[in-house]
UniProtKB/TrEMBL annotation:
Coiled coil: none annotated. It is found in: Membrane. Residues 88-108 have a biased composition (Basic and acidic residues). It is a single-pass membrane protein. It holds the Pfam family PC-Esterase. Belongs to the PC-esterase family. TBL subfamily. Residues 123-135 have a biased composition (Acidic residues). This is Trichome birefringence-like N-terminal domain-containing protein. Residues 144-197 form the Trichome birefringence-like N-terminal domain.
Length: 500
């Protein structure tokens, strides 16, 4: 649709009518060229916001579409300057009560989350068309890009990307090797999109591109899982491991707050901000004492400044949005001073995400910051839920049969709709739900702690972790997909010239 300014001008030159005098012809042609060039200069050299203002808010969508469908020569995203990086206020440490002292706090009831098949299909076609998930281009175009999230797990003996037990920054709960998991087949799978190959993960290249920048994972413990994976994948390529460290020396990452791994040779950091709902948890005083409430209309203002100016942000939320973790929706959700006597969790989720989306649209500098949202990661509790003896510890093989997969979560359909309505920000949607659903074999299950007695072992069998992932493991694939998306759609140092 668009082509380079020079070829556009050449085309116009050819089309100037030939019946006038040479002078008129020259003048006419000249003015057309000047005006067209001016327009093109405007288009190509103004940041998104300016273009957006010019086109009354529709500019970004136009440009995104152009970029999705367009040829690989078009590079409208080469506008950020990675050297202009400012830092957040790192002193803002959070002292709120630790919400993650047992894995259960972060767990969910898988089947209840994904139920509601009746609604799952609503508007799905529309959503698919308009959402940029950096995998699928919109419908109806010949230059359809490969959907990175539509694929399968293939055997690969060169996996994993870092040796089990090699990385000291993996939470003990995720360190299945440390806790003696006997099988290791679950480590030897690689995600393979059906219509293309992922670029192999080059940690040195990733760090080079991240030089002078900051990537932040924001969300619940599943994003901590992904963050630790990234820290380890990158650390594996660094010769002198002493030059990779948490900036305040922390070795435990479960408390709410801010964590930052610095890669000294690359002047960059890989950070995690723990905020389970993204919006603000807000205790409220009542006659009867303090009541926990969740503000659906306000971002978590303690954590938002910790990531607002990062170069890359990867969000997630989802596992806490369940009936039982939100007081059954009774006297819990709040907007302003109004506490809903009762609100359905999907409704609350939609309101909170809408708050998130509008905050992103108004507070993120999209010329600098690239925003990702990672979708829901499936759980695999068999014979019960996380709190009623659900199990996955005998699983050593992925699911191969698609008909055994769970339906696409309704909450993710809601998320897609919210992202689709954003005005200023191109959010890259990492649609990893299905790929996680295949991997019933890769959870920590009983290998999340040591047990000394038979009684402890018995208890471990009854209280398994089938929602987080062993590391090395499945989140490594999410980070490979993040790398692929950055190479394909990234700005500045991330942009790769050759097509993916
Ligand atoms: C980005 O623009 C600069 C100059 O404006 C150019 O030198 C560089 O090659 C461009 N990078 C990419 C990836 O297109
Ligand atoms: C990885 O990236 C580095 C830095 O760009 C490069 O020197 C190296 O050749 C790459 N390795 C592979 C295997 O492509
Ligand atoms: C490190 O990166 C920051 C931006 O994050 C930059 O201001 C600073 O100059 C860089 N330092 C070096 C030594 O390159
Ligand atoms: C306070 O407790 C009383 C008695 O249990 C109850 O009737 C009332 O609704 C409570 N008020 C609030 C604001 O929770
Ligand atoms: C994400 O993947 C699911 C299948 O797991 C699909 O139904 C949904 O449409 C996808 N969303 C996008 C935006 O591609
Ligand atoms: C739809 C569904 O699966 N509902 C279940 C949610 O979880 C509770 C408690 O585990 C079950 O009793 C429901 O049947």
């Amino acid at each position: 649709m668009f082509c380079s300014p020079i070829s556009a001008v050449m085309v116009l030159r050819k089309q100037v009518p030939d019946k006038n005098t040479p002078l008129q012809r020259w003048r006419g042609g000249f003015f057309v060229i000047v005006i067209v060039s001016l327009l093109l200069v405007l288009l190509f050299h103004f940041p998104y916001q300016s273009i957006d203002a010019l086109f009354g808010g529709k500019g970004i969508q136009l440009i995104q579409k152009a970029n999705t469908f367009g040829s690989s020569t078009l590079n409208l995203q080469n506008q950020s300057d990675p050297s202009q990086v400012s830092r957040p206020n790192r002193d803002k440490s959070v002292t709120e009560k630790d919400k993650d002292d047992g894995f259960k706090d972060y767990d969910i009831k898988g089947s209840n989350f994904t139920s509601d098949e009746g609604n799952a299909g609503v508007d799905e076609a529309d959503v698919e068309e308009s959402i940029e998930d950096d995998g699928v281009s919109g419908g109806g175009d010949d230059h359809k890009e490969c959907d990175l999230y539509n694929g399968r797990w293939v055997r690969d003996q060169t996996m994993p990307l870092y040796p089990p037990g090699s990385c000291p920054y993996i939470d003990k709960d995720f360190d299945c090797h440390f806790h003696g998991r006997p099988d290791d087949d679950y480590l030897r799978w690689r995600w393979k999109p059906n219509d293309c190959d992922l670029p192999s993960f080059n940690a040195t290249d990733f760090l080079e591109r991240l030089r002078g920048q900051r990537i932040v994972f924001v969300g619940d413990s599943l994003n901590r899982n992904m963050w630790e994976s990234m820290v380890c994948m990158l650390r594996n390529s660094v010769g002198n491991k002493k030059k990779v460290y948490e900036i305040t020396g922390k070795k435990e990452f479960k408390k709410k707050g801010f964590y930052s791994f610095r890669y000294e040779d690359y002047n960059c950091t890989v950070d995690f901000v723990a905020t389970t709902f993204l919006v603000k948890e807000s205790p409220m005083e009542t006659k009867n004492g303090t009541m926990d409430t969740l503000r659906l209309d306000l971002m978590d203002d303690i954590t938002a400044p910790m990531y607002q100016d990062a170069d890359i942000i990867v969000f997630n939320t989802g596992h806490w949005w369940t009936h039982e973790k939100t007081s059954k929706g009774e006297n819990y959700y709040r907007e302003g001073n109004y506490v809903y006597p009762k609100l359905e969790v999907d409704d609350a989720f939609k309101r909170a995400l809408t708050t998130w989306a509008s905050w992103i649209d108004n507070n993120i500098d999209t010329t600098k910051t690239q925003v990702f949202f990672r979708s829901y990661s499936h759980t695999h509790f068999r014979g019960g839920q996380w709190n009623s003896g659900g199990k996955c510890h005998d699983e050593t093989k992925p699911i191969f049969e698609d008909s055994y997969l769970q339906p696409y979560p309704t909450k993710m359909t809601i998320l897609e709709q919210v992202i689709d309505q954003m005005k200023n920000t191109h959010v890259m949607f990492m649609n990893i739900s299905k790929l996680t659903d295949y991997r019933k074999d890769a959870h920590p299950s009983i290998y999340r702690k040591h047990y000394n007695t038979e009684a402890e072992k018995l208890y471990a069998v009854k209280s398994q972790d089938c929602s987080h992932w062993c590391l090395p493991g499945v989140p490594d694939a999410w980070n490979e997909l993040l790398y692929a998306s950055l190479l394909r759609r990234g700005k500045g140092s991330w942009r790769k010239q050759s097509s993916l």
